[in-house]
Predict the 3D structure of the following.
Amino acid sequence: MASPLRLRSALALVTGAGSGIGRAISVRLAREGAAVAACDLDGAAAQETVRLLGGPGSEEGASRGTHAAFQTDVSEAGAAKCLLEQVQACFSRPPSVVVSCAGITRDEFLFHMSEDDWDKVIAVNLKGVFLVTQAAAQALVSSGCHGSIINISSIIGKVGNVGQTNYAASKAGVIGLTQTIARELGRHGIRCNSVLPGFIATPMTQKMPQKVLDKVIGMIPMGHMGDPEGDVADVVAFLASEDSGYITGASVEVTGMRLVWGGKGQRSGT
Ligand code: NAP
């Protein structure tokens, strides 16, 4: 059972906060007392997340009206720096918790994958994480604050997947980037960890054909897909809090012990 309000003095920036795992993380961090800066490519979806976090008189109550939404394309040059400036102007401090969750898929077999699909996935999933982490770390170091950076990778970054050369490369890159940042920023009191979800029920996995989904679920020893809030957001809240104060550079798998995909020539999502 999580300690109540263990993030009550935290300001959390969450990218990809308008949907799926990013939204679930935003809800969970707010429930533990954090003020949340919810960022998404889709500004209206980020606003909707903020509405879900609750304001005065809402069911969630705990938020105390301290959240805000931001529209940003994390892959755009200069956008992350601008986002951090906006967040600091809004909350008068840099975020002490930074969760890079924005991500996309553009699946295709190697022989048919276009350069554009390769570039787009790397730009959002890897370069976007780099840009947000760099801007956030610069803001933290220059204000002398400690922090916890959490990057959402994927188990696919560790084991690969048919039809996902671009996605697997981007997510493997996030693991390496995170480990390196943990080494560079430890002396500034900034921790950096990655979370590697397996198959989680979100709009991203809803795009998968039912036949493939059924097959994938059959290969998960726990027997079901993960839940964005109950499974992934729990781990992120732990990594965000001081309960994980001596954990940095780690890659935490949240997979229900997913087996390596063995379907011949079949694509399998995240
Ligand atoms: P999702 O429901 O599609 O949410 C991703 C969010 O990121 C969307 O709101 C999307 O906005 C936003 N986004 C996309 N491109 C962006 C950009 N350039 N700048 C800012 N925001 C952007 O997917 P999800 O399943 O929650 O996935 C969240 C993260 O977990 C991703 O990094 C994904 O790779 C990772 N992951 C997911 C699973 C899984 O099984 N679901 C497993 C392993 C890892 P739009 O809707 O406007 O595009």
Remarks:
- The beta strands are 11-15, 35-40, 68-71, 97-100, 147-152, 190-197, 251-254.
- DSSP finds nine helices and seven strands in the chain.
- Residues 15-16, 18-22, 40-42, 45, 72-75, 101-104, 124, 128, 152, 154, 197, 199-200, 202-205, 270 surround NAP (CB under 6 Å).
- Residues 11-254 form a domain with the Rossmann fold fold (CATH 3.40.50.720).
